[in-house]
Design a protein that fits this description.
Blueprint lengths: L1 H29 L3 H22 L3 H25 L23 H4 L4 E6 L10 E6 L5 H39 L16 H8 L4
Antiparallel strand pairs: 1-2
Helix pairs in contact: 1-2, 1-5, 2-3, 3-5
Subcellular location: Cell membrane
Family: Belongs to the NKAIN family.
Main location: membrane
């Protein structure tokens, strides 16, 4: 019963992680955040692998999921430090876009309560026809939205890590106990010795 409940809980956690990663992937695509897009893609693949391993009783797949969970927590800690500008990091740099573009998080212009204002940049050489976009009246700044998302990812990942380790131990114990009773033994414990063929032939030709 404990194994079943832990396994069902891990399936639920993997499903939640998968949905959260898909939601995050959509908004990272909208903001052209290429590094998070790549990380989310790998996360989705390995969560699916862990989900398959949990459903099909494959502990090796769950081990891969467990290792990746540690990497995923580290990545989200980095994202939090990036947006809070910890350790010399700056959220205004192009680090998450691989210096390909100057895009920021999608939430920077579309956060709750945000109002976009565009003003034409006249008189500046090479910038005529362009507009300066300012965002005001945001209920919650975009960096805090990103921090909240990463914090939730860390929380679910840590709980998933604990349950994954427990499910792996249970699956391993079940496999060991099955081996012990001869489940995979080609010669069963109660093996009946058959009579040799030559002995059977002798019994056939005995005189009446």
């Amino acid at each position: 019963m404990a194994c079943c409940s832990a396994r069902c809980t891990l399936i639920f956690l993997c499903t939640v992680q998968l949905l959260a990663a898909l939601q995050r992937q959509v908004f990272d695509f909208l903001g052209y955040q290429w590094a998070p897009i790549l990380a989310n893609f790998l996360h989705i693949i390995i969560v699916i692998l862990g989900l398959f391993g949990t459903i099909q009783y494959r502990p090796r797949y769950i081990v891969v999921y467990t290792v990746w969970t540690a990497v995923w927590v580290t990545w989200n800690v980095f994202i939090i430090c990036f947006y809070l500008e910890v350790g010399g990091l700056s959220k205004d740099t192009e680090l998450l876009t691989f210096n390909i573009s100057q895009h920021q998080s999608w939430w920077s212009e579309h956060g709750p309560g945000c109002v976009r204002k565009e003003a034409p940049m006249v008189g500046m050489k090479g910038l005529d026809g362009h507009s300066y976009i300012s965002v005001v009246d945001c209920t919650l700044e975009y960096q805090y939205i990103e921090v909240i998302q990463s914090s939730l990812q860390i929380l679910v990942a840590l709980v998933g890590f604990v349950y994954a380790c427990y499910v792996i131990s249970v699956f391993t114990e079940e496999e060991d106990s099955f081996d012990f009773i001869g489940g995979f033994d080609p010669f069963p414990l109660y093996h009946v010795n058959e009579k040799p063929n030559n002995l059977l032939l002798k019994q056939t030709y005995l005189p009446a």
